[in-house]
Amino acid sequence: MNDYKKIFEKVEDTLREKSFLSQTEFDNKYGHFKRIENIKRTDEQLFEIVTMTVFYSGFSSAIVDRKKDKILSYFSSYETTSQYTENESVKILTDFDMIKNKKRIDSCIANAKTFKCIVDEHHSFQAYLDSFEANSSFENLLLLKEELEYRFEYLGGTTVYHFLMDLGYKVLKPDRVLIRIFKRLGLIESETQLFKTVIQGRKFAEATGLPIRYIDIIFAK
Known about the structure:
DNA-3mA_glycosylase, 13 helices, mainly alpha, 2 domains, 221 residues
């Protein structure tokens, strides 16, 4: 049987040693990842996460981070974005400082329309998320995952887990880095096992009593 707590503590200690940070500096850098769960967000904050997830999907995070302010200058409001037409899409593409990917831009516009429909029906996007009671059972969490994959563009595969993790749900992002680490640790047998990677992440969170977002960032670093 794997000692998940011991494995994680070793990884955390190794990261701390290699970072050459004091305990206080380490906590200041990574501690906020322990406080992501159970945060209630506004519609604007949630739409920002939807939008940024679209651009982070399969793209260099360093590039997206540098372009974040520019991206949000066009997609900060779901109500405004939902009214965009092809003319706005083309205009955004002409911005020298913008990531020039029409499929992602059009997906953000489509997602804004979907987001607005959900808010109109449920009065807030948070209320829509809460209606799934995704923290009460893993089955409900998977139902929410499936719903998001169906309704939103670019929220599929690894990306939907990224989105749910950033919202504070008990899943981690089974990306290439994490999958390879878990495979080296003998926790999964194949790099195609996204779901099993998520399950293993949940076991780390349960064994340590730490939020899974913190588990993810420590392994990813």
